[in-house]
Amino acid sequence: MEAESQTREQKYAADLTSIKEAEARIRPFINKTPILSSDALDALSGKRLFFKSELFQRGGAYKFRGACNAVFSLDDDQASKGVLTHSSGNHAAAVALAAKLRGVPSYIVMPKNAPQRKVENVKQYGGQIMFCEPNLPSRESTAAKVMQETGAVLVHPFNDGRVISGQGTITLELLEQAPNIDTIIAPISGGGLISGVTLAAKAIKPAIRILAAEPIGANDAALSKAAGKLIALQEINTVADGLRGMLGSLTWPVVRDFVDDVITVEDSEIIEAMKLCYENLKVAVEPSGAIGLAVALSNGFKNHPAWKDSTNIGIVLSGGNVDLSVYGIHPKDDE
Ligand SMILES: Cc1ncc(COP(=O)(O)O)c(C=O)c1O
């Protein structure tokens, strides 16, 4: 299906126009991230791989694109009361950073088991943290309370057209840097990243293939796609702390209608992909960020009908906020 003609009827949360507007709005603030490549990883996969390295984005993850677009879309009056979000990490830091650049306060609701590296990131950008229980009802009720008390505007991590449009700017850069890409593999959780990437990609290059990469222990998107309706999981279990969310009302329609398929991998494959990124690309990628490579190397992809038609594959390395202990490095607390 051709994305742009559909979105003109306001059927989806973003379209190529809103994504181009986002690109112009956030350009002064974001990093244009490089494409990395490795002959060794090309040989291992049997394909040409183009790694869109969003771990070099400000805040250490692509999330800054969407947060920045949302925060700078607000008029002065709205912005003056500050912005609020609930997030396990990367979006939280991104909102805090965007608010700091806009000169307004940010209130961040985080689960108390969020990785330390991500908590530090939010503090570093001046975000005011409120910890909650690690479940959705607790996150939402804490956020509602803060919103009532402060009048801050909610910037949802994925179910927000401004956020989705910001994430879509990745595609504008990627297809300019590597125009011959025929397939894009990107992580999926709440679906903000894949929705923006997909709506832009299918509008610019309708024949492009989009594969979503999901941990088997958080496979709501794979199950929903197979069933043709939104399916919620009762239990989630994955090392990829950024991929523990579930699709929302704005992202599911894009995944249902435009994402070609969702491919799942085991946590062990994600860890192996992190290691391969470190060894071959010389970059520290967090588990959620490395899953695209894990999928590219998986049997799930090699046995998929898309395999034989995929030659030049864009892989979104979505973030690099990884605790060094994963690499066996344990910095002392007082250093
Ligand atoms: C590094 C990283 N990659 C991917 C995702 C998934 O993004 P989305 O929820 O938009 O699907 C997240 C979400 O937090 C993330 O932090």
TrEMBL record:
Listed PROSITE patterns: DEHYDRATASE_SER_THR
GO MF annotation: an example: magnesium ion binding
Keywords, ordered alphabetically: Lyase, Magnesium, Pyridoxal phosphate
Domain Tryptophan synthase beta chain-like PALP residue range list: 26-319
Protein name, as recorded: Serine racemase
Enzyme Commission number(s) of this protein: 4.3.1.18, 5.1.1.18
InterPro entries: Ser/Thr_deHydtase_PyrdxlP-BS, TrpB-like_PALP, TrpB-like_PALP_sf
PANTHER family linked to this entry: SERINE / THREONINE RACEMASE FAMILY MEMBER, SERINE RACEMASE
GO biological process: D-serine biosynthetic process; L-serine metabolic process
Cofactor(s) required for function per UniProt: Mg(2+); Mn(2+); pyridoxal 5'-phosphate; Ca(2+)
Assigned protein family: Belongs to the serine/threonine dehydratase family.
